[in-house]
Amino acid sequence: MIIYGVAFLAFCTLAGIFIGELLGKLIGVPANVGGVGIAMMLLIFLGSYLNKRGLFTGKSEQGVEFWSAIYIPIVVAMAAQQNVYGALSGGPMAILAGTAAVAIGFALVPALSRIGQKKSDSEAAPSLTKAPR
C-alpha cells in the first residue's frame, strides 16, 4: 500500500533527525548534525534491504516516489534555515569541511555507479578456447 511507503519515509526522517540531534549533543553543537543525510541513507539502505527481501512492494514504493517529487523544495526550505553567515564567520574549518565533503562525494560517484551493475557477457563467461602451448 502507498501509505506504507509514506510511513517508511516518515520513520527514516524521524530516525535521522533524532540521530542528528544526538550527534550534535555528543559533539557539543547546539544543532542537528546531518539528520537529513542520515535519514536519506537510512531510506536508501533500508529500502534496498526490504526490496531484496520482497517486503517493499511496488505500491509501497509509490508512497516514497510521491514524496521524492517534492523533495527538492523541502531541501531548499531546510537549507534556508541554516546559518551560513555563522558558518563562514566561524573560520576556515567550516569551509574546509564543506569543501572536503563535496570533493569526497564527487570522488565516490564512479565507485557508487558501479554498484549494482551487471557484468557484461564477455566478463561473466570464461573463455572456452585455450591458447596453444
Q: How can the largest sheet be summarized?
A: none
Helix content: over 70%
Uncertain residue segments: none
Radius of gyration: 21 Å
* Count of discrete domains: 2
Which term fits the overall shape?
Answer: globular
How would you spell out the order of helices and strands? HHHHHHH
Category by helix and strand content: mainly alpha
Helical segment tally?
Answer: 7
The total count of strands amounts to 0
Mean pLDDT equals 76
- What is the oligomer described by this structure? single chain
Distance between the termini: 62 Å
Strand content: under 5%
What are the main properties of this structure?
133 residues; mainly alpha; 2 domains; 74% helix; globular; membrane; Maln_transptMadL; Malonate transporter, MadL subunit
3D architecture notes:
This protein folds into 2 domains: 1-82, no CATH class; 84-117. Helices cover 74% and strands 0% of the residues. It has helices spanning 2-27, 35-52, 58-69, 71-80, 84-89, 92-114, 121-124. Helix 1 (2-27) packs across helix 2 (35-52) and helix 1 packs across helix 3. The mean pLDDT is 76.
Give the arrangement of secondary structure elements.
Layout: H1 2-27, H2 35-52, H3 58-69, H4 71-80, H5 84-89, H6 92-114, H7 121-124
Helix pairs in contact: 1-2, 1-3
Summarize this entry quickly.
The chain is mostly helical.
